[in-house]
Amino acid sequence: MWVKDPDGHLLAFVEPSRVPAARVVRATAVPVPVSRRVLHAGLTIRDPEAADRFYKDVLGFFEIWRGGRADTVTSWINMKVPNGTDYLEYMLVSGPVSRQQRGVLHHVALLVPDIQAALETVTNRTAPAARPKLASPQVGRNNRWQLNLYDPDGTRVELMEPFTMR
Question: What is the pTM of this model?
C-alpha cells in the first residue's frame, strides 16, 4: 500500500513474505556489511502538528526525543513506531529546501555496534584518494557516537551506535 504523508513524502507499507528465505551461501569475496539494521530515517517536516496527526494519530507513532544544535532550538523530533524500536526523525524545516539540503536532511541511519570499527571498515573500502573527505566520528546531541557519510550526490547515510556514549 502506498500513501503520502502531509509533507508529500511517498510511503510504502510492505508485508514481509511468509515464505521462508532460502539459505544464502556467502562467497568468500563478498564483504561483511557495515550494518545489518536500519535504526531510523529522517524526513523533512514543515508542519509538525500535521505530521503528528498522521504519524501519531493514524499510525500510532509516539515521541521519544527532541533536540537541536542548541538547547534552545528544536531542529528534530524522533517518533518511534508502535511495537518496535525503529523511529522516524522529523527534520524540521520552515521554508524551501535545496537539493543539497534535502540530501543531508533526508537520510537513513544504520545501526553499528562500534563506531570506530565501522570507520575502519568504511576507510578500508574507500579509495585512497577519497579517504581525506571522510568525516570523523562525533558524539551527537543524543550522546551517541555517530559518523556521517555522503555519496557522490551528497546524500547522507548516518552510522550510529545503539547506546549513549560509554
Answer: 0.86
CB 41 within 8 A of CB 53: no
Cell of 59: 499510525
Sort 147 into a burial class: Cβ within 10 Å, 0-12 / 13-18 / 19+: buried
In CATH terms, the superfamily for domain 36-160 is: 2,3-Dihydroxybiphenyl 1,2-Dioxygenase, domain 1 (3.10.180.10)
Tens of pLDDT, residue by residue over 144-166, are 999 999 988 889 999 999 988 76
> CA 89, CA 75: separation in Å to the nearest integer?
10
Summarize pLDDT for 17-40 with one digit per residue, the tens.
777 666 666 666 778 899 999 999
